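Tutorial, part two.
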Amino acid sequence: MLKQLVSLFKFRIGVMMMITALVAMMVTPGRSLNGLEILVLALAVLASAAAAGAFNQYYESDLDARMQRTRDRPFVTGALHKNPVWLVLIVSLLAVSAVATTLVLNPTTALWIFLGAFFYAVVYTVWLKRRTWLNIVIGGASGSFAVLAGAAAVSPIMEPVPILLALVLFFWTPSHFWSLAIARHDDYAAVGVPMLPVVVGDQRAAKVVLANTLALVTVSILPFFFGLSWIYLAGAVSGGGYFIYTNLQMLKDQSPKIAMKSFFASLLQLVLLLTGAVLDVLVFSG
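Running the prediction step on this input gives:
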């Protein structure tokens, strides 16, 4: 059952969003949060992302059943019974997150957390995914809102570094997901979901991924010029350089193996960048 719940609530994505929020909190100049405030911020981002992930699977169970990558999800296999009680739980989880954040932190943080869930669950899943290749570009902005939530928790003023990190997440999502979509081209084509590789072909999609990754890496370097040190820069450049390298490989070969290599390189890029930001703060905070 635990494995099914982890799958349903997409806790891996939620943990990533939680980490980005906490990193943004650390790099944003402002007041220091106490233990309770940090805990509420972390759990609220995690819970809201979990609610959005569960709604995504509830709404898309018909697509999931027809795609090889998702056919083992709990609503498809019957491990969890799909009924309206899940919608009540999902809405309640999001509401508790928003209320707790408002009471313990501030309404702005709660708003960003709510918007992150709303963009993934409604804008991406309901409105855009089955209609346009821009689905992941617009809907993917949900990751950026976690960064802004972490920044808003410590300061009402939008500082340059968290804004740039939010832009990093905005550019990161298409390159990350389109690499996966190239690897799973046949899956998306079979169910009629207009992911970019399905619409324009894998070769052209690989070119767009490379262009987007170049923009991503450029933006990821900019925090160095707004106060972060060489430690952050080393993480951003090393991870970004490797991601560009795998994109160039994918430009020559759009096989699932190379596309998945690009997909995993995107994860490494984000991990190195966030780790660099954390180390930067820990080393130079004193």
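The longest helix spans residues 256-284. In part three we will examine how such features are distributed along the chain.
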